[in-house]
Amino acid sequence: MTDQLSSPEFRYVGGKLHAEEIPLDSLADSVGTPFFCYSHAGLIRNYKSFTDALAGLPATVCYALKANSNQAVISAFAALGAGADVVSGGELRRALEAGVPPDKIVFSGVGKTREEITQALRAGIMQMNVESEAELDIISSVAGELGLTARISLRVNPDVDARTHRKISTGRRQDKFGIGIDRIGMVYARAEALPHLEPVGLAMHIGSQLLTVEPYRTAFQKMAAQVAALRAVGMTATRLDLGGGVGITYKDETPLLFQDYAAVVRETVGDLGCDLVFEPGRSMVGNAGVLVSRVLYVKQAGARPIVIVDAAMNDLARPAMYDAYHAIIPVSEPQNGLSHALVDVVGPICESGDTFAVSRNLPPFKPGELVVFGSAGAYGAVMSSAYNSRPLAPEVLVSGARSAVVRARPSIEDLIRQESIPDWIQAPERVRGAA
Ligand code: LLP
Questions:
Q1: Among 57, 267, 377, 379, which residue's CB has the most CB atoms within a 10 Å radius?
Q2: Is the pTM of this model over 0.90?
Q3: CA angle (78, 62, 251) in 5-degree steps
Q4: Measured from the CA of 318, which atom of ligand 1 is nearest?
Q5: Active site residue 350
């Protein structure tokens, strides 16, 4: 099997890989490598297929900023009517700045600070998803100080295994997320009794990159039962936030189809009379983006050739963090009949973990050649760092024949400028300079 990209917006035209109508080699010439490239048409297609699948349901789609929080990407979704799921004061600020209406913003997260709660209440967001009893008290107290009422949902930990990578599984009893399902009735009653709080319903998110509907079916059924139980004792729950998590194709996985997901939503919670909130992240942006990199060297070591590229784990952390698979594709279309070989593909960072592929069957790569890493639109740029003092890779958004640098590459001077040397450090250079 050879690697492929699973998005129609990235395809070979005249032997060159294009993002929509723009050849990636021309972008590489102007922006430099490595860089992220996103397709606007891909974002639109993903969002529309999701909302089409949910047609007829009382749904608000709150794009999960954590997957890709570039202002241009958030704005693109906001222009289509999307709300936002945010997990920090920083993301809240980004959503507002990109034009997401406050009444379509959900604030999730296990550790909201008083400052973040204040910021959310002042902005008048749709709801905060509360993850512990202690957080209820804090929100009630902050809302009281501000003279405001906080709309809240309780995030339920439904104790369901999403059967995904252990580091992105969030709905099992032992995970740090949400309030145990057996305590929801009691905690909800407490929320109704506390001043300055308006409980509006329940929320859940069991994990990311789910490839089957079964864990959803189980969790949604449990949520429906919880809503019924609250109502049976006279409490009001009018909103159900079902989180995100729909998986995409990185290699050869069968993706979870939006239609199949929506069918389970209809079957389990469609008749509750609740407004539904969805928080998709990866499935909106993952396959609408690639990371473009240049081959620096090819060397022989041990059994296989090692291809060294100029992108590294600081740019795309997923392979190092989760052993994640990202397709690797040459920008110049390989000629028919070219023999593939097993190679390792690595970045230049001084760690063995800085490895993108081990024993991957790839066409021959030459130094200077451009390659792309597929499915890098989600959890790519947002998780990047300046490790090894490698400035963050820029981000480019393409729309038809137009392109825009939507985040510029900082210079090393920009990085150094943010730091300072206290005057009690006597570096030789400075001592000499002072002499
Ligand atoms: N809502 C909540 C409360 C979440 O925690 C998440 C993701 C989402 C929505 C969006 O889930 P999605 O639709 O993107 O699966 N860095 C990891 C993924 C971490 C996901 C964290 N939570 C990765 O690269 O695979």
A1: 377
A2: yes
A3: 100
A4: 24
A5: yes
